[in-house]
Each structure stands twice: as structure tokens, then as C-alpha cells.
Amino acid sequence: MKKMLTFLFIVLMAPICNAQEEIIFNKQDIDKKDIKVSKTLQGLEFNMDFIRIFPGRYMGYKFGSIETHLNYFHESRIASTWTLFKSIGIGNTFYNKRIYNITAPSGYGSDVITEQYNYELSLNLKIEPRWYFDQRQRYRENKSTRNNTGWFLSLPLMFSTNLIQQPVAGSSAGWFPEKFTADIMAPPTIGYRNSFAENWFMEANVGYIPTRVWLRNGEFHMKSATKIGLFSADSFNSELKVAYTF
User: Which of 23, 80, 107, 217 is most buried (most C-beta within 10 Å)?
Assistant: First the structure.
């Protein structure tokens, strides 16, 4: 009888023991310093500025502009949940621009306003400190943090200079800029990254540009968002990207 009861006890308890082996418990009191983002990531990314499709008030761009970038990036850990993201690459832009055609040389009469797509090829640099602020919460909830998956806040410093620009009718400028020019932005940014494979991730972010800075003919020019338009597309920067790490 005892042998029979012992056998039944083992049979009943076996599934429970096996189930306990499959349960994973995360430490609720883990020290923050023990949760760290990836030490180093590098690869290629392709992104587009999805806000650029909307019309801007200051730049004279109409609905339908397209801006894409192909970059090499390198991201390194500088603290437990902080990284320094760097990228360099080429930007291709088709701006749907408002063109004013003067019909009367004397200045009298009305102008004819048309829309035209103009092409620009640019060189882009970015240095961006990032804080992945939900890493601890993701660990507690047993969510993936592969390739630094999660929400982040950042303050990127971005430089852009034209390499090729399509000549505009009525302008003396050619395909290649005669003098060095640069656009400088530092938009506070929020974004989310999701790693969908071992070496692949997608990311979306959006930033607000409080002040735009242009370097033209050796002189700096500045325009605040209040003058450009607080809610104009010209006052925002965005990225929708897919990236491969190696």
C-alpha cells in the first residue's frame, strides 16, 4: 500500500515540478547598475523623414516632399542606460517647392505660382547622446532588450551640407554649390526601437527644433520656431528607419 501511495504521489507531483522549471522570475530588487544596454552596436541604416511630407510654412515647401538617408552608424555605451550614437551618410531629398514666376519685368502684374520638385544630395553627420529610460521596467516585465530595444530620450547635434542641388529656374546657382553652406540642428527627441531579428531593428523618433541655424557665406543665421511656425513641419525632425547590425 505504501509503495502504491508513493508511486501516486510521484506521478501527481511530476507535472508540477516540470512546470516550475519552466517559470522564469526576474529580480524585483536588482540594482540599477546591473542593467546595461549593449556595449557596442554598428551597422547600416536606411531612414526617411516622415514629417517632411507635410507642408512647411517658412521653407516654402508644399505637401509631398520626400527625404531619405543611408548612413553608417556606431552606438557605444557610456553609462548603464546611456549610449553615444554617431552616424555619417548621404541624404537624398525631393522637395516639392513653391516657385514664383514673375510675369511682368516692370514689376506690375501678378506672379504665377507653380509647384516643382527639386533634388538635393547632402552629406549628414550626427552625434547623439541617448538615454534608454525604460530598460529596468522592461527587465522586470521580462521584455526583450535586444539591440537596445525600448524607449529613449536624446539630444542629437546634426550637421548637413549640400553636395548637389538642382538649379532653380531664374537663379544663377548651378548643380554644385559655389560656397560652403551647412544646416545645424539640435532637436530634443523621443523615440522607440524594436529589434525584430538578431541583426535587425526598426526605429521611429521625432524631435522638435526650437531654433534653426544656417551657415551661409561664412555667416550664421538663426530662426526660432516662433518665427518659422510652432506647429509647422519645418519645426520638426523625424526618422523612420530600418537598420542592420554587424
Answer: 80
